Amino acid sequence: MRKILDDQKTLQSQIDQLKEQLADFCRGLFNVLDQEKIRVKVDERDDERVGYKINKWELKGVPLRLEVGEQELKTKTVTLVRRDTGKKAVVGLNNLAGQVKIVLDKIQKNLFVQAVESLKNNTYEINDYGRFKK
């Protein structure tokens, strides 16, 4: 029984250490992006599951999500997830701010094209009042 408790304490210690490393990594990412005037929010809450947090930020309209986990920490990369297409891209830290700006610009252009197309597809010219009433 004592062995199990010791193993649990060791495991919890490793988890806490990983969380602290991830938090430090994210703070560094925040500083890099903030210096480039890119608005960033780091969601460090532990009271909600990942899927819930992702959904919350998508509902708020956040165009680009940066995912950081144990794998990204080891490889010093960040996974970018576009809200408009759902596509993921793994990006190194050497030009993170530049890549984020490029992706945000692509998202903006894509959303504009979609909006113009939707406007064209849903705009009708009616010259007859009878048809208008329908």
UniProtKB/TrEMBL annotation:
Top-rank taxon, per record: Bacteria
Keyword Aminoacyl-tRNA synthetase applies: yes
Keywords for this protein: Aminoacyl-tRNA synthetase, Ligase
Molecular function terms, GO-annotated: ATP binding; proline-tRNA ligase activity
Annotated Anticodon-binding domain residues: 17-100
BP terms from Gene Ontology: prolyl-tRNA aminoacylation
InterPro entries, A to Z: Anticodon-bd, Anticodon-bd_dom_sf, Pro-tRNA-ligase_IIa_arc-type
GO cellular component: aminoacyl-tRNA synthetase multienzyme complex; cytoplasm
One Pfam family per UniProt: HGTP_anticodon
PANTHER family in alphabetical order: BIFUNCTIONAL GLUTAMATE_PROLINE--TRNA LIGASE, PROLYL-TRNA SYNTHETASE
Protein name: Anticodon-binding domain-containing protein
Organism per entry: Candidatus Beckwithbacteria bacterium CG23_combo_of_CG06-09_8_20_14_all_47_9
